Every structure is written in C-alpha cells, then in structure tokens.
C-alpha cells in the first residue's frame, strides 16, 4: 500500500513540476500571460512548484525504508526519475502538439524500464 501511495504522490508531484517548468512555454500563447515579464512568470512557476513539494516530500517520507516504507533511497530516486520522464513525455505530446514520439523515444523508455529492473534486482 505504501508503495502505491508513494508512486501516486510522485506522479502528482511530477505533474506539477512539469507544469511549473514547462507550462509557461505553452501558456505564453494566452494573451494575458504573454504580457507578463520574466519575474512574474518565475513567481507563478514557484507557486505551481509549491504543490510539487507538497506531494514530493510526503512521497519520499512514506516510501523511504528509514520511515517504514518499501523503497531504498536509490530505488526512490530511480522511480522518481522514470515518473518524471513519463509525465514529461505525456505532457509534451498532449500540450505541445508539435512534438512527435519516435522510435528512439520508445527505445529510451525500454532502457528506463531496464534501469528500474536492475535497481530492484537483489
């Protein structure tokens, strides 16, 4: 149960992170947003990133073996990185219609799956 909760929180966290880091590139198409200066965009991104931390920190505490969770620190980091890349890929395909998903991306994701496999192998 703690493992699934950790993964769910990491997915939520990375969704907010992706919006904070890359959403402003798409939101610039909105008339009111395009008039904002860099400082305003940074502050808006920080506001969104606050929600990332509200999910990331509990995910790591719940999932970490030192607090009774199922994952080592290395395992948590690999899970988080894989989730980050999957969330980013989905976000890119949905929000930025100009991006394409190619064969080399599929191969890269297969290597990520192998990385997770080897990280959890005893």
From TrEMBL:
Pfam family, one: DMT_6
Keyword set, alphabetical order: Membrane, Transmembrane, Transmembrane helix
Transmembrane spans: 36-55, 76-96, 102-120
Organism: Mariniflexile aquimaris
InterPro entries: DUF486
Coiled-coil zones: none
Superkingdom assignment: Bacteria
Signal peptide: none
Protein name as annotated: DMT family protein
């Amino acid at each position: 149960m703690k493992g699934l909760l950790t993964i769910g929180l990491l997915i939520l966290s990375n969704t907010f992170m992706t919006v904070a880091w890359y959403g402003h590139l798409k939101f610039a198409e909105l008339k009111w947003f395009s008039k904002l200066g860099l400082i305003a965009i940074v502050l808006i991104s920080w506001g969104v990133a606050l929600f990332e931390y509200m999910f990331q920190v509990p995910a790591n505490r719940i999932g970490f073996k030192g607090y009774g969770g199922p994952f080592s620190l290395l395992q948590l980091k690999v899970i988080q990185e894989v989730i980050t890349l999957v969330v980013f890929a989905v976000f890119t395909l949905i929000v930025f219609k100009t991006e394409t998903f190619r064969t080399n991306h599929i191969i890269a994701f297969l290597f990520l799956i192998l990385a997770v496999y080897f990280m959890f192998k005893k």
